[in-house]
Design brief:
Helix 1 crosses helix 3. The longest helix is centred in the C-terminal third of the chain and has 16 residues. The chain is mainly α. The radius of gyration is 13 Å and the shape is globular. The protein is built from three helices and two strands, in the order E-E-H-H-H. It has a domain of 44 residues.
Length: 66
């Protein structure tokens, strides 16, 4: 399987995988109904719950199961 890039840079956007260090900012962003209308998952109840989710996603990424 081909490994995806760590970061994709465009003219107007830079994309990268979220990390557990992004938990507080991601939690704040998901408080916005405008943001959440584009998401296919429910907002977490706290930034620690968001961190836990991101830690799990990082582990699944490392295990090649996500």
């Amino acid at each position: 399987m081909k490994t995806p890039p760590e970061r994709i840079d465009g003219v107007l956007v830079r994309l990268r995988r979220a990390t557990p260090e992004d938990a507080a900012a991601l939690f704040l962003a998901t408080a916005s109904p405008e943001v959440m209308k584009y998401m296919d998952w429910a907002a977490q109840a706290s930034d620690s719950e968001t961190r836990s989710h991101l830690e799990g996603a990082a582990q699944r990424w490392a295990d090649d199961t996500e």
